[in-house]
Amino acid sequence: MSSEIYSYVYEKAISDGALDIYTESIYMKKNRPAIKLCILCNEKDLNKFIDLIMLQTSTFGVRYSKYNRVILDRKFTKIETEFGKVSVKLGYYNGKLIRVTPEYEDCKVIAKTINIPLNNVINNITNIINKNFNINLLT
What we know:
By secondary structure, the chain is of the alpha+beta class. The chain is built from 4 helices and 5 strands; from the N terminus they run αββαβββαα.
């Protein structure tokens, strides 16, 4: 299967509600190189993604497993930065704020707009987060 197909399947899966998608280089029987395509999705979407894989790839079969998942409670807020207001994601575990991260899409727009490295934008905003949010993981 052409590697270009994977790009299309990635885009289609994400736009159709996949939680994540990735590929791995593997070896199959008789030591044949292959690509393992994994789509993480909600159980209610399983058949939709089986259809996608069967119809859009060269596979003759799909294996699937059910996984348990623990996620942080999430909230979003905006903080003031030298770039203007930027969205940040707040992550709570057992009711306690344990993580604050800048929203990637906001950072990407800033980096493109003012033509600076994305990593600089993320680091700058992370410094502001560290000054303004009291996150203590030790207690």
